[in-house]
Design brief:
This protein has about 525 residues and is an alpha/beta fold. Helices cover about 45% and strands about 10% of the residues. Strands 7-6-5-4-3-2-1-8-9-10 form a ten-stranded mixed beta sheet. The protein starts with 15 loop residues before the first helix and ends with a helix. The structure holds S-adenosylmethionine and iron/sulfur cluster (SF4).
Length: about 525
């Protein structure tokens, strides 16, 4: 029986100095601390010692130092701050803000500090960097065609749960006659897709993918072309019998089970259905046992959405995971846990204030818990906002953009989603069938004659096609879309002003701003 005994619950809390140092309001740029010393370095870089000997020079240096302290604080607390945010916080014009950012980037210590502790850092490491390295950001900025860095395949027909935070339109589903032609379109897509990025495709949806009766065959087919497929599922249907009839699922690279609770009562609060935890945990145990018996390589992971008011439940989730791992030798049959915040949550639904500090303590406990249980290789992925929290820096919930920041032509070189009808969507949660206004974000439909590459090429060639995002359209973005959009807005500032905020090597004048950046 696993417990949290021996862990350091309650002993760790955000230290007062840290807390004060990273609150963005009430910034005193003169307060001593690491940011002030970095700011002083930046001030010295901008106003030399000989200049600082005059009264004007000394004043200038102090003024830059204060601005640098505020800018550094902002860049630490708020992921993907834009030039206007920095200018506003420092009460200066854009030119000064550009000078400031350039000086911060030039100063090795300040730049190094931001790489490690900047509010962007967790987003950049896990999401932005691989996209930029693939060349997709460059293609986006140049407005040229590139097969998307990541493609979501939404093959589901329906869903048997009704999760409180899920944006799916209740009562909406696909028709069973859509399944066979839809699966044929998916197969065609996998056969035609480039194989440069084997983990490009993931199977998820606004519904439950296992409700597609041909899914296992689609997975087997895709794997035959070298695609390392990842499936998101609530695992309600994933019984031993189901697996025996759907052997193709063993060709998945990764199977990620959404855990909506470790006990039926908690799971019911989220999913509105009785008996969910009992069923999902039993299915997961059977799956892990079968994996071990068959010697399969399938990576098995779990996803849990941490919600306000349910932080203590994390312990039960962790204990349930150990009981699942127990179905395999050395508890190695399960590979990772992804913990996510509700990216749709704002206001009271978001985890903030004292509760966020408790969350930090629990997360630290959780990591040591798995090690204590002998599961050293089990990865706990804290996503964007919570990783920084554990590192003692970023305490804000996951970064969300407004509809005014949304890009009316999306970023199809980076990400699109294809549903069972073959419709290609620009934003991930627009592809949840039946959501009002979501069809404005469809850029084309696959047919037996028209593949994804052609749909994208036609779309990119037609600069008159764009959506004017309306208030509320930000609901069509998931956490990935929010992060990518916030980053691309920084990059678009760089393109326009040469501000070098985003780290993308773009120079004003070299590029002609493509229409998609400015709409
Ligand atoms: C939309 S579901 C579709 C696949 C499947 N029905 C499932 O639940 O796994 C994909 C994943 O998104 C997560 N998700 C849905 N809405 C979310 C939200 N508002 N915040 C964070 N994660 C969310 C779900 O928990 C699930 O892990
Ligand atoms: S999160 Fe998944 S299981 Fe829950 S309602 Fe949405 S699609 Fe269904």
């Amino acid at each position: 029986m696993s417990t949290f005994a021996g862990s350091n619950s309650g002993l760790v809390s955000i230290s007062a100095p840290l807390q004060e140092a990273f609150v963005v309001d009430h910034v005193d740029p003169n307060a001593p601390g690491p940011l002030r010393s970095l700011a002083e370095r930046v001030g010295r870089d901008l106003v030399s010692n000989s200049q600082a000997l005059t009264r004007h020079g000394a004043f200038e240096r102090e003024s830059w130092t204060s601005k640098a302290a505020i800018a550094l604080r902002l860049l630490t607390v708020r992921p993907f701050s834009r030039l206007r945010d920095i200018a506003e916080a420092c009460r200066c014009n854009y030119d000064d803000a550009i000078t400031l950012v350039a000086a911060i980037n030039r100063n090795r210590e300040a730049a190094r500090y931001l790489v490690k502790f900047g509010g962007d850092a967790p987003y950049r490491r896990s999401t932005i960097q691989p996209i930029a390295e693939s060349g997709a950001v460059r293609a986006f900025l140049e407005g040229t065609y590139r097969y998307p860095f990541t493609v979501g395949i939404y093959p589901a027909v329906s869903c048997m749960l009704s999760c409180s935070f899920c944006a799916r339109a209740r009562g909406e589903q696909y028709k069973s006659e859509d399944v066979i032609p839809g699966n044929e379109l998916f197969k065609q897509l996998f056969a035609e897709a480039p194989r440069d990025l084997p983990r490009r495709f993931y199977l998820s949806g606004g519904l439950e993918p296992l409700t597609n009766p041909g899914l296992a065959e689609v997975v087997r087919f895709a794997a035959g072309f070298g695609h390392r497929m990842q499936l998101y599922t609530n695992a309600m249907m994933l019984t031993s019998r189901f697996l025996a009839k759907n052997e193709g699922l063993w060709h998945l690279d990764t199977l990620r089970i959404s855990m909506y609770g470790a006990d039926d009562e908690t799971a019911q609060r989220t999913t509105s259905r009785a008996g969910v935890a009992t069923r999902v945990l039993a299915n997961a145990r059977d799956l892990v046992r079968a994996k071990s018996e068959r010697g399969e390589k399938l990576r098995i992971g779990f996803n849990h959405v941490i919600q306000s008011g349910q932080i203590a439940h994390l312990r039960k989730i962790a204990e349930a995971l150990v009981s699942i791992a127990d179905q395999s030798p050395d508890r190695r049959g399960i590979n990772f846990l992804t913990l996510r915040e509700n990216y749709a949550a704002s206001g009271e639904a978001a985890i903030s204030g004292d509760e966020r500090e408790r969350l930090r303590d629990e997360l630290i406990d959780l990591q040591s818990f798995f090690v204590a249980e002998g599961m050293k290789e089990f990865e706990v992925d804290l996503g964007y906002g919570m990783r920084g929290l554990v590192e003692g820096v970023e305490t804000a919930p996951v970064r969300r953009v407004e509809h005014t920041d949304m890009l009316g032509r999306g970023y199809p070189q980076i990400s699109v989603v294809v549903d069972l009808l073959g419709d290609v969507y620009l934003y991930r949660e627009a592809a949840f069938i039946g959501r009002v206004g979501a069809d404005r974000y469809i850029i084309g439909r696959l047919t037996p004659e028209l593949g994804l590459a052609e749909v994208l090429q036609r779309y990119l060639a037609d600069s008159n096609r764009f959506v004017s995002p309306r208030a509320g359209d930000e609901i069509f973005l998931d956490a990935f879309d929010h992060a990518v959009t916030a980053f691309l807005r920084q990059a678009s500032d760089d393109l326009h002003f040469g501000s070098n905020l985003s780290g993308v090597p773009v120079h004003t004048g070299l590029y002609h701003p493509p229409a998609n950046l400015w709409r």
